Structure formats: C-alpha cells, structure tokens
Amino acid sequence: MAIMVNRAVLAHRLFTGISRHHLARLVEELAASWQAGLEGRRHAARGGARKRAAGAGARHQLVFVDRLVATLIHLRHDLPHSVLGLLFGVDRSTVTRAIGEIRALLASRGCAVTDRPGLRLHTLADVFAYAQAEGINLRLDATEVQVRRPPAGRGGRRAFVSGKKKQNTMKATVIADDQGRTLWTDALRPGRMHDATAARNEGIAACFQHFPTVEVLLDDGYLGLRRDHPGQAITPPRKPNKIAFPHVHAAREQARHEHSSKRITVEHALADHKRWKQLTRWMHRRDRLPDTYRAIAGLVSDRNITS
Q1: Same domain, 52 and 121
Q2: Is the overall model pTM greater than 0.85, yes or no?
Q3: CA angle 108, 143, 163 (to 5 degrees)
Q4: Are residues 77 and 198 both part of a single domain?
Q5: 2 found inside a domain
Q6: Exposed end of the chain (fewer CB within 10 Å): N or C?
Q7: Could you list the residue ranges forming a coiled coil in this record (predicted)?
Q8: Is residue 80 included in any domain, yes or no?
Q9: Pair (206, 282) in one structural domain
Q10: How far is CA 243 from the centre of its chain?
Q11: H helix intervals, the chain
C-alpha cells in the first residue's frame, strides 16, 4: 500500500529538528558536494570515465532535498529505514543508501563559529587556534552514549563496558565556549577509556604546548591534565585538609561554585546534542556512531551563525 505524504510537512521543524531557512542553507551548501561524490562513485564502479552526457541516465527516486530531509528525520527521531521508505514512497534500501551518503557529508562539515560565518572548525588544533586568536576560554567535557553489547567471544568486548554508567557505551569529548556553543567533538572512544586519556589521544597536550595562552575549564575527571599543564587546564580546587580553618573550607566551596558556574555551558551543549534521539541510545552499528555524532554536533553548531 502506497502512502502519499506531503513533502512540505516532512520538512517541518518538528520532523527535521531545524528551521526551513537552515534546511535551505544546507541544500545550497551540500548539493554540489553530493553530486560530485555521486559522479565519482559511478565512475569508480564503471572503471572508467563518464560516457554519457551530464544529466543522462535513470532519474533518482529520491532527489537530494528528500535525501537530506530523510536523513535529518532519522537523526532527530531515529525512525527505521523501512518507515522512512514508506513515507517517501521508496524501498528501504534506497533510504539506507541515501542516509549513508548524506550523513557522511554532514559529518565532514565541522562546527560553525559566530563571528565568522565562512569558518568551520574541524580539528582540535583549529579550536585552540581560534580560541587564542579571539581570546576565548574553552570548556571541555565528555559524555557517553549507550551502545549495543558486542557479541560474546569477540575481542575487545570489555573495552565498551563503562565503569561509571555500568553499561556498554562509547565516549565523546566535546568543547564549547562560554555561551554553550559547540566548537568541536572528537572521534568517539570505547566507554571504558578514562576522560583524560581520551583527550590526550586527541592531541590536547600538543595543543597546550603550541597555544600557551589558551585556558580550558575542566571538571575533577581531568586532574591529570591540570598536573601536566598548570595554568592552562583549570579544574576545581582540591579539598583542603580536615583540620583547616572553617573559612578555608568556605573559600574552597565558593571557588568550586564559581568554577562550576563558568563550566556549565559545556553541559548545556551536551544537552543540546542529546535532544537528538539517536544520541540518547545508539542501537545501530558502532562504527557509524562517530559520523552520526559529528553530523549532529555540526547541525547544532549552525545556530552559532546568525540567520
């Protein structure tokens, strides 16, 4: 049974999670890259150069705008591919292929910044360079996404068991600014890895060395970074000795409260990410989660750019 759904309704913010103006900007930004990638894949499959004229051949069952809308709905609400195929009047495999193409394009965009609409940050070094140039103090934190348990007997199975969540998870490190705007997220790591270790694996030590004026606010999980990079990795003050005077304890609690008030913006950024259902619990292949997280982080960061 065919279901005819108004495509304008499917493009509504309630389905896609973004405004129509934002959707139009995405279409303008990504359409050429998608077409170029499509032609490249076709040439590789044929094993030679194009023989037909541009535009010749069978037409797509899903045009680019529909592919983008279907991918956004999948990211926002985690609807199954078969349901999306029914809504758009195509086969499930067509939706699966479309989502794989568009998700990769969204993941490669990086994160936007407010004062430079044409600039997008892709690497940790980009973020530190931007922070040093603009005099911004960064906020860094990690979050975990529950994933499916690896099959029994597979090597590295215990690496995904989080000691904190008591679940199988993957861990993402996120950097935000003082207004809670997402600036960067890393390649996700198995949940058993410590937060500080994940940051070190992304090269944060080299960034501290090359950008000595940048400060990063952290929580108590990054005490090792504060020890290695004093003055740049800022964590809450440690608990004083039990026999310390009462005013010492009071000053410490006040300092911790002020630090938490400044660092809370990165928690707000993480909450923005978790509003997309696919990041509340990931039920698909684990190797697809990094691209999904980067795609959502880039979409959330687009709000940094004034419309």
Answers
A1: no
A2: yes
A3: 130
A4: no
A5: no
A6: N
A7: none
A8: yes
A9: yes
A10: 45
A11: 7-10, 13-16, 20-46, 64-77, 81-88, 92-107, 124-134, 195-201, 204-210, 223-228, 246-274, 289-301
Residues 193 and 215 in one domain: yes
Tokens of residue 284, six digits: 């698909």
Cα separation, 27 vs 171, in Å, equals 30
Neighbouring CB atoms inside 10 A of 93's CB total 11
Q: Are residues 78 and 144 in the same domain?
A: no
Amino acid at 163: G
Tokens 């999948």 found at? 74
DSSP 8-state assignment for residue 150: P
62, 98 contact by CB (below 8 A): yes
CA dist 151 → 155, 156, 157, 285 (Å) = 9, 10, 8, 12
Q: Are residues 70 and 136 in the same domain?
A: no
Strands 120-121 and 169-176: unpaired
Mean per-residue pLDDT over the chain, rounded:
86
pLDDT for position 1: 56
In which domain, by residue range, is 144 found? 115-304
Q: Which two tokens stand for residue 2?
A: 């065919």
C-alpha neighbours within 13 Å on the C-beta side of residue 5 = 18
Q: Which two tokens stand for residue 129?
A: 């360079």
Q: What is the pLDDT of residues 228-287, one digit of tens each?
A: 999 999 998 776 666 666 656 677 778 788 888 999 999 999 999 999 999 999 999 999
What are 67-109's pLDDT values in tens digits?
999 999 999 999 999 999 999 989 999 999 999 999 999 999 9
User: What tens digit of pLDDT does each residue of 194-207 get?
Assistant: 999 999 999 999 99
Q: How far is CA 272 from CA 102, 269, 297, in A?
A: 21, 5, 9
The answer to whether residues 81 and 95 touch, using CB atoms and an 8 Å cutoff, is: yes
Q: What is the DSSP letter of 161?
A: B
* Same domain, yes or no: 15 and 75: yes
Q: Is the model more confident about 248 or about 193?
A: 193
Q: Tell me if 173 sits within 8 A of 142, measured CB to CB.
A: yes
Greater confidence (256 vs 128) lies with 128
> What type of residue sits at position 39?
E
**Total domains present in the chain:** 2
